[in-house]
Design brief:
This protein has helices at residues 16-24, 33-46, 51-55, 58-64, 70-74, 78-84, 94-114, 117-123, 145-157, 164-173, 185-189, and strands at 130-131, 177-178. The mean pLDDT is 96. The chain is 54% helix and 2% strand. It has a two-stranded parallel sheet. It is mostly helical and 191 residues long.
Length: 191
């Protein structure tokens, strides 16, 4: 980890895992369906919490949710939910856990209709990331008309924990938008 590089101010230098996430993952265009499903579940789990908290629990989430294989998650039962409620390594919120299972079923429906979730998702921007040029964190929105439209569409298909703010975070994390500040070394790398 190079501490001399200029980063987005949210990349907390005292947390190596957080900095690595900023430097290698956040904002990188993601097209792999399992990784997209992972980020969708984790962004929903984050609701009301910090991403740092979720990031430090990601390995346990991967274990509990079968490596974020949507087909396996969709087959989870109420007994599985009860088991996960006793698991200390994830957020023990029944609604969020149940949402992951319900969202997996909708995710599979989308894959069947569009060939992949990636096709559905990236079609919203014609397959090309939106490159923003924000200079300060105050300029970065919490949601946009596009995140509201995607959220509304996914809710209409039956998903939950996918409000416009969660979807915008998902868009940032998966590289649909490049919201690295222009002063951050990653902004130019991802343009």
């Amino acid at each position: 980890m190079n501490l001399n590089k200029k980063r987005c101010p949210w990349a907390i230098l005292s947390d190596e895992k957080y900095v690595e996430y900023h430097d290698k993952e956040w904002g990188v265009p993601l097209f792999d369906d399992n990784r997209l499903f992972e980020m969708l579940v984790l962004e929903g789990a984050q609701a009301g919490l910090s991403w740092r908290t979720i990031l430090h629990k990601r390995d346990e989430y991967r274990s509990c949710f079968f490596g974020f294989n949507p087909e396996k998650v969709a087959r989870m039962t109420n007994d599985d939910v009860e088991t996960l409620m006793l698991t200390g390594g994830i957020i023990r919120n029944r609604l969020k856990i149940s949402s992951a299972i319900k969202n997996a079923k909708v995710f599979i429906d989308i894959v069947e209709k569009y060939g992949s979730f990636s096709n559905y998702y990236w079609n919203w921007v014609d397959g090309k990331p939106i490159i923003n040029h924000f200079k300060t964190m105050d300029e970065v929105p919490a949601k946009t008309p596009l995140s509201e439209a995607i959220s509304k569409d996914l809710k209409g298909r039956g998903m939950s924990f996918i409000g416009a703010t969660i979807i915008y975070s998902f868009m940032q994390a998966t590289g649909m938008v490049n919201d690295h500040l222009t002063s951050c070394f990653r902004h130019k790398e991802l343009c």
